[in-house]
UniProtKB/TrEMBL annotation:
Biased composition (Polar residues): 250-266
Gene from which the chain derives: plsC
UniProt lineage: Bacteria, Pseudomonadati, Pseudomonadota, Alphaproteobacteria, Hyphomicrobiales
Pfam families: Acyltransferase
SMART domains attached to this UniProt entry: PlsC (SM00563)
Transmembrane feature ranges: 7-28
Protein name in the entry: 1-acyl-sn-glycerol-3-phosphate acyltransferase
Residues of the Phospholipid/glycerol acyltransferase domain: 71-185
Length: 266
């Protein structure tokens, strides 16, 4: 049953995405802000598929921590889940993504139309300079820059590998940073066809203000995201039907965040 549900979800996930991109392609003729509504609509459609086909729900905590205006959003990267589902909670987000995604037919056109920020990983110094200029413009426009500080997806519970590039960007932009933790990798694991039913918990953590030293910012960001993410993984062990992925992870109760966050379930 799990395989069949996952297969149906995967087919619908990519099928709905393709059909929506084709049918709604006339928005390419509109100004970016007028056509943006198709992106959160797409995200909500995929959330509905996850919930009603794959049995995957969402619990959101700390929505009150999302700042107004321009900011960076530093996301834990465990799954394909977080790349598509958090879009409706930000008024005008732009993702920092690898340049190769621009080359995908139709999908790449949308990333260009809605001014997502590409980065050429093969030319690090040039890529960083171009990314900084695009990011500065986005902040000036009051947009939210969505970035995955680890650069690539890491399995839930794996040793983190954060890159320092976000600290350079933080210094240049002088804007608040919203750290985001979650446990999506337990339910839609990296490179997995199977999507397990359950509830993904997301925490929007207290912001890191501008003006910190780069090392201090990076240390605090990693500590906040990892502490919360590990706590959410531990919390998932007590769910009514824990994800089978948890059986492959060691018990990790020592690193727990403090405090509580207001929760919203969708």
């Amino acid at each position: 049953m799990l395989f069949l549900r996952s297969t149906l979800f995967q087919i619908l996930f990519y099928g709905v995405t393709l059909v929506m991109m084709i049918l709604l392609s006339p928005v390419m003729l509109l100004p970016r802000r007028w056509g943006w509504w198709v992106v959160p609509l797409w995200s909500r459609m995929l959330l509905a598929l996850m919930r009603y086909v794959a049995g995957l729900k969402v619990e959101l905590r700390g929505l009150e921590n999302i700042p107004q205006g321009g900011c960076m959003v530093a996301l834990k990267h465990q799954s394909a889940w977080e790349t598509v589902t958090l879009i409706p909670h930000f008024p005008d987000p732009t993702f920092i993504l690898k340049r190769e995604l621009r080359w995908i037919p139709i999908f790449g056109w949308y990333t260009a139309k809605f001014r997502q920020i590409p980065i050429n990983r093969g030319k690090r110094s040039e890529a960083l300079a171009a990314m900084v200029e695009s990011a500065k413009q986005a902040i000036c426009e009051g947009r939210q820059i969505m970035i995955f500080p680890e650069g690539t997806r890491r399995p839930a519970g794996a040793e983190p590998k954060y890159k320092f590039g976000i600290a350079h960007l933080y210094k240049e932009l002088q804007c608040p940073v919203l750290p985001v933790a979650h446990n999506a990798g337990l339910y839609w694991p990296r490179s997995s066809w199977l999507v397990y039913p359950g509830t993904v918990i997301v925490e929007f953590l207290p912001i890191l203000p501008p003006g910190l030293a780069m090392d201090e910012f990076h240390t605090q960001m990693v500590e906040r995201i990892e502490t919360a993410s590990n706590r959410l993984i531990d919390e998932a062990r007590h769910a009514p039907h824990p994800s089978p992925v948890l059986s492959r992870l060691p018990e990790n109760s020592s690193r727990r965040g403090s405090g509580s966050a207001q929760a919203t379930v969708t």
